[in-house]
Model the fold of this input.
Amino acid sequence: FHKPANVSELVAALDELTHQQQPVPYRILVVDDEPGLASYHSIILQEAGMATYQVTDPSSVLQVLQEFLPDMVLMDMYMPECNGLDLARLIRQVPEHVGLPIIYLSSEPDRKKQFGAMRVGAEGFMTKPVVPCELVATVTILAERMRILRSLMARDSLTGLLNHTTTTHLLQNALATAERAGGSLCLAMMDLDRFKLVNDTHGHLVGDQVLLALSRVLRQRLRSSDIIGRYGGEEFAAILQDITLDRATHLIDELRKDFARVVFHSASGEFSCTFSAGVAGYPAYTSGELLREAADRALYEAKRNGRNCVVP
Ligand code: GH3
Ligand code: MG
Ligand code: MG
Ligand code: MG
Done:
């Protein structure tokens, strides 16, 4: 069972598709009440280079989905405690899993029953005993598509940075890691100064170029283990790991100076743009919500102090 142990691993999984780094094996959840069959199907997939996790107790599936984050599910259709159809229905009720591919495995020969099972929300049906190469092909195609969807869903389409949902999720993970390791982390919230004026003066397309430029500065300057998200329209978040509040504030201030030096060109002339930022740290603040509130308060103060500055 290879659970993403830390945030950088999760980010690597998300990044795999966009940056084509070393491939992360597809993660397949195998649900079957018969341990022998679960193992047999797992071994076929493992030999094809995939990572699998076997579940023989259907009641643990929702929990395992959260932790194992599979790219697809192989689901036995008939299990004594709970049949695969009910389980698929349950999985589909969780918004995060609406797109998760499910393939039923069963010896059910009745086409009508097979079809009925798929209507509950599965992508396909394979009869036992499976033909190994068919199993591998089907699973690969579906897992690949899930990876693409997940990667698109995790990111903001303009800047390619992590979106609000992903950033919030990774903040929770980063906090859990810091807690376990007795480490520290900082959350910085950055907001462009008088950005409405930029749009009004130079137009939205130029405004979008400013957003892109800031995302580039953030990506260039921060470490690969840092998490950078577009939190809202013109608001960005950075989660910096293993760093003190002092050092994080200094680092964000360097970014502020870098960005202020970028010159933009538009039909209405040359201009530059600045951002203000608020920084808050764990363990001073112990939850995602508290960190967010504290960083927001600091950001508000930065705006009140005249903007183009960083407040811890
Ligand atoms: P402040 O310094 O107080 O933050 O002032 P502001 O003008 O930056 O703040 P305000 O919240 O009044 O305006 C934010 C603007 O950001 C308004 C909105 O049109 C713009 N904005 C949000 N998302 C986008 C986007 O995706 N593209 C562009 N071009 N503009 C955006
Ligand atoms: Mg069974
Ligand atoms: Mg704003
Ligand atoms: Mg603003």
Observations:
- The longest helix spans residues 132-154.
- The chain has eleven helices and twelve strands.
- The two ends are 40 Å apart (CA to CA).
